[in-house]
Amino acid sequence: MKKIMFYAYCRGIFTSRKIANHLIKDAAFIALAGGNKPNFRTINEFRRRHIKLLPCVFVLILKMCEKAGLVGLKHACLDG
User: Fold this and answer.
1) What's the pTM value of the predicted model, to 2 decimals?
2) Residue 6 lies in a domain
3) Is residue 33 situated within a structural domain?
4) 80: three-class secondary structure by DSSP
5) What stretches of 1-39 show up as alpha helix (H) in DSSP?
6) Euclidean distance between CA atoms 31 and 49, whole angstroms
7) Structural domain tally of the chain?
8) Of the N and C termini of the chain, which has fewer Cβ atoms inside 10 Å?
9) Residue 57 lies in a domain
10) DSSP state for residue 74 in the 8-state scheme
11) Which residue range(s) make up the domain with 33?
12) Structural element, H or E, at residue 46
């Protein structure tokens, strides 16, 4: 479920219903979910239970990507 959440966030998809919809029709989401199709309630419950942990894991993923040379963190942009 973490893979799905982070991929969705990176693509700008934040609502549980939209994520659930992508799990039905988007090949990348389907592959990340291993063919599982959690509904929006399951996604929302996962997010609610892990709301404090998700930002920390996201930062760790970014640091790993930077170390591997996949992303550069010298420039940051905020939208909103």
Assistant:
1) 0.75
2) yes
3) yes
4) coil
5) 2-10, 16-25, 27-32
6) 24
7) 1
8) C
9) yes
10) S
11) 2-67
12) helix 40-49
